[in-house]
Specification:
70 residues; 5-stranded antiparallel sheet; 0% helix
């Protein structure tokens, strides 16, 4: 995995995470848990969007990543 890109829209209350090229988005699938999966033509998940995601105005969004050996 190369880069992970995060976009937080405080006004729209969404958090969008891309770990693939967003230009490759072909179809979106709603999971029913207020999460939308973005997939490429091969059906691989290349990103997701969390709806109704909020961070209190007095706090900053903090993100931590952990690498797992495959």
């Amino acid at each position: 995995m190369g880069q992970v890109k995060l976009f937080y829209d405080r006004d729209g209350n969404t958090l969008t995470v891309w770990f693939g090229d967003k230009q490759d988005e072909y179809v979106c699938e709603e999971t029913g848990e207020e999460v939308i999966l973005m997939k490429d033509r091969a059906g691989r998940v290349i990103g997701f969007e969390k709806l109704n995601f909020t961070v209190p105005a007095t706090e900053r969004l903090q993100v931590a990543f952990e690498a797992v050996a495959s």
